[in-house]
User: What shape does this take?
Amino acid sequence: MNSLAQARTLGGIGSILILLGIVPIAGVVLFIVGFIMVLMAVKYISETVEDKTIFNNMLIAVILAIVGMIAGLAVAIAGRPFPFFREFRPLYGQSMFIEPGMFPFFTTLVIALVIVWVFYIGSAIFLRKSYTTVASKLDISMFDTVALFYLIGAVLAIILVGFIVIYVAEILQTVAFFSIVEKPQQPLQA
Assistant: This one.
């Protein structure tokens, strides 16, 4: 059986690797490895506290995020913005803001980004459910704070400020995982 100590180690190191996702070139690999480690940590917590909803909600969050990215990419490709790039004229020619292909390009781009954003908010809602349950089961309120920051970050991502909030949530997630103790404290019975 997996222990909370393993979850603490996997989640903490995985969160650090996610933070290193901004490193050029190797960042993508670090992010993916860290993400998988955090997912495994949440599974270990779910098994240890015997609450499957923790991992199920996290899994739904991951699936929604991936589906959102794929759907956004599909809309962007279906809108065929790529031939537009071949039509750019030199800077001294016609203004690029009155090019005939410009409006469909930006419309497609905006629609694709909104689709990704909506799925990301849905993902953040399920992540919040998962981390809120972890916070109550392990009595670590930092997980509740992380969940709130993720949700706020997802909502604000449309104006780009949200990505800073999400990065702060990742830092707090690292602290939350390293705050896990081997034996969860039992809530006081009144």
Observations:
- The helical segments are 4-19, 27-48, 52-78, 82-86, 102-138, 141-156, 161-178.
- The two ends are 31 Å apart (CA to CA).
- The chain has one domain: 4-87+96-178.
- Residues 4-87+96-178 form one domain.
